[in-house]
């Protein structure tokens, strides 16, 4: 009688249960065959749900009669799948079985995600922390470590909204850490790195006169410069000088001083040197000086360029009210008087400026200028201007306050904070102009479209600036012209601000 090949057999595996992310190791299954030794039997396995249990996550030992299965569920997966085992002998006869593999759901620890932010010096960061939970639970955020050169405020613990405020003038790298919780488990710490960029350019200060004047044929001496950076300190040795002066040839020369700090911020100053055939001395006297405790201290005398209004020369009065400028080129100037009470706290009178355009054309020419009546502080009110819109703290700006009736500039000032205050004569109307790099020029109008501010009491107004990257203070001059409206007899003049490229 011919022998009959019998199929192999295997032991039964019952339901297997494990937890999410927990492998089940060494599940035994015994295989045998009457005609074939166990080391010649082969065993294969499949998973009906490869998302839960990928095939590569199932391992089987070889050759022994008792084989061992190790099954690892995919990360963060739970549910059921059927595992199918098949044993075959060399003749192709098989034995089959399936068993249920069950993975129980387990609450996973949420994950906090680190971030990196770049911000400008002195500018706060308002953003949102990042985290996720595979189980979709609601999360609660908490700060676990605070920064060193700034403060962190968690605005909303449910959304992770935060405000980081760097300390004033601090720059470099800072960081804080946070965690999230789903109410059961808490994440590991995540780090938020803050890189505070030093975007403040260095300051170059020119020694000597600027502009400078020299007679044809004389020796020109460059008095030099100093260069200082808020972050890097003294940068004198990094200054590049471009340009020269030929004193044999009459003309205007420019020497450029340029420096770059270690953060890449660039600054430059230009010295203007005029080689002249001749120059002279200007004599001046200030008349009608009001009752001022110390006119020598309270009255500054300046010469301004008539186009750019940049400061050219500065001096002070003597006790008789006289002043002089020597080695002065023959040209047109603005004589500018800046009158402020430096002797009393609080001041007795309002600051005042006086401008007079004149042509200097002869040696020892004399100019006379009068000071109008000063306004006592008690006859004034405060004007407070708040900048908003696109304006960013610490951006520099200039402002002018102009008499609405005469068109004369009453006050000029500058600032880099979102608010400034000036005192103005009572019962008057004024125009307000604000100019700043990378912002559109601002001319005040009230809610009714009136282009003036009436000062009858302390007043607060808002100036809404808008971004304009193409506008730069150095590229413009401001002409204040005025036209009398037929219907504006009560208020006087209507002012126009005309911006012209130089």
Structural class based on helices, strands and sheet pairing: mainly beta
CATH architecture of the largest domain: Sandwich
- Which overall shape is indicated by the principal axes computed on the Cα atoms? elongated
Q: Uncertain regions: pLDDT < 50 for 5+ in a row?
A: 488-493, 497-502
Round the Cα radius of gyration to an integer and report it. 41 Å
Count of folded domains = 5
CATH class of the largest domain: Mainly Beta
CATH fold descriptor of the largest domain: Immunoglobulin-like
Largest sheet: number of strands, sense, barrel closure: 5 strands, antiparallel
Which range best describes the helical content: under 10%, 10-25%, 25-40%, 40-55%, 55-70% or over 70%? under 10%
Number of H/I helices: 1
InterPro entries: Cry22Aa_Ig-like (IPR032179), Ig-like_fold (IPR013783)
Domain Pesticidal crystal protein Cry22Aa Ig-like: 204-275
Protein name: Pesticidal crystal protein Cry22Aa Ig-like domain-containing protein
What does this structure look like?
This protein is mainly β and 502 residues long. It folds into five domains: 9-104, Immunoglobulin-like, CATH 2.60.40; 111-197, Immunoglobulin-like (Sandwich), CATH 2.60.40.10; 214-276, Immunoglobulin-like; 280-370, Sandwich (Immunoglobulin-like), CATH 2.60.40.1120; 379-501, Immunoglobulin-like, CATH 2.60.40. It has one helix and 41 strands. The strands form twelve sheets. Strands 33, 34, 36, 37 and 38 form a five-stranded antiparallel beta sheet that branches. It has a four-stranded antiparallel beta sheet with strand order 1-3-6-5, with no helix packed on it. The N and C termini lie far apart (119 Å).
